[in-house]
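Example record used in the benchmark description.
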Amino acid sequence: MASVYKPKKDKNNRSARWHYKYKDEHGKWKAGRGFTDKQETLDLARRLETEAKKRRDGLVDDRDLRLAEHRRMPIQDHIGAYEAALRAKGSSSDHIKQTIAYVEAARTDLGWKTLVDLSAECVQGWLAELRDSRGISARTLNARRTALRGFTRWCVRHGRLSTDPLLAVSPARESTDRRRTRRPIDLHMLNWLVAAAESGPVRKGISGRDRAMLYKLMAATGLRRGEASSVSARSFHLDGDEPYVVVEAAHSKRRRQDEQPIPHALAQEIKSWIEGVSQKGRLWPLPDKAFKYILLPDLRRARALWMRSTSNRLERRERLRSDFLKPVDDNGHVVDFHSFRHGSVTQLVASGTLVPVAQRLARHSDPALTLGTYSHFGLADDRAALEEAYQQARTESAPQRIVSLSATGTEGPPGRAPNAHHGRCFGVPSRAQTCNEASAGPISSNSGKTASGVRKTPLSDAERRFVPNTGEGSRTPNLLIRSQVLYPIELRPLYWDPILYGSGGWSARSPRGKMGGCWCATCRISRQRHNTGLPRETDVWVGVGNLFLPRARFCEIHRLQELPSMASSISSKKRIRQNIKHRARNRWRLRIMRGAVKDFEQKVAHGTTEEARESFRVVCRVLDRTAQKGVIHRNTAARKKSRLNRRLKAKAG
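Model output (structure tokens):
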């Protein structure tokens, strides 16, 4: 029973506080100091005793009590515990120092005292103030946001907060506020840089030949500066058919051991070079300011060699105005050690490497990072690709183009009349002419004249099959279709219309329209096209999306599926684009998952037990990732892992 009392020395003192005592959940007496009012102190004691009784009876969750206790703690204690957790996790000292500094700066500027003071609105306003008053870039603001979000997520995971209060803090858009943009080191720059390094002096204990080999390795493998600095002679495995270099997990950015492949030609150079250097310790111990003391002098020396390599005065004057091998070009793009990695990924993508392969070689978690950030292609590359495609289209004849493209379904089935007019619906070029017609200029669909106004030479029946009916020659003559990407999978009929176009073109219309319909007498949609004079056994092919189907199958689709309506609002067009992107991304994730499962099955069938175990771990990670993204159900992933685990146990015996 709770009770209150005053100590003997304070019995006659009215301003003295009353003391209380009660039994806690363990049946032990607890005492405390209350208020100067006796009734308030007694109410406090009874409330504490009631809560203790509820805890003893299991009516109160201990997690709520711990949350209340953590809310009363000073926020400095939580930050100290978070720093200790980062050290126990194995994070680098620089990362810990920077993260804690960002959290402490927010605590000082916003006046946080406890976890209750955390607010998304305050943090968002604080970041906006830093951007406006101090001119901090969007990337730095996002780094501060990441540090704060990491702290709050840690508090949620460890029961210090029930929900993340900074979940609504939106990131800044970095694409509109880039302060430092790298440009890749291409092969031309690399050759001059290697030549300058080989003939250069020793810099920070690294000879010129050693620096040249470092530049070659970073340009070929895309290693980061810290990863290349940690490489030793024992990291190279150059004797087998697949040479590679090992990056230890302590020095890798993703904190796992990586085996990066090396080209065979470079592997032979490294093998002969290693024999003449000391194999103790790191091969390239780069200092902290490696760019200032190593790469920058080599860049300046390489530019000087490039300037002296010509004796022509006019050419030397042009080179003097050029920004080739400058640390900062005319656009403000810089060159540093990470530019080797940008150049390596750009060369991979430019050589036609598959995106998943380029992503694995770059050791990226997202293909968008490989293609969007590390692949550098300018207007000159776009112009070269466009000229090459245009020249190829001009030099090839129309029948050859149809045969070469028939496998993709863009020009109709092999041996059939080409779909010269279907650019109106499918967004493919509609100027597929023969070699004789290409010399006469573009063809008009209305007058049958060339662009110069001269009527074209009459064509034979065989040639007329390849005459396009293109209107103004536009890729999208129908102005209602603003983007061909919006309608890639719509069910659109495509039929041969001799009434409107004779035997020289395809017509694409809705089967619900006035002139719509198909040729099959069994089609229930329209029958007004059956009195055209063509025999019933004429084999007409129709286009559906990117497929070409016989007319009987097309009529069956007509009966079973109704055509979708065209998107008319901005939101619906956006939703279609998002659906296409999400569907492509999910299919890519499914391909990755199936490839990992197939690799595991091959290792189980033909590999060793250790290889099968390693492949099983990879499959589990891929399945978990696929389920986390919502491509497959988590129960499906668990079932697949269980079945694969049984196969692994059967192989291990």
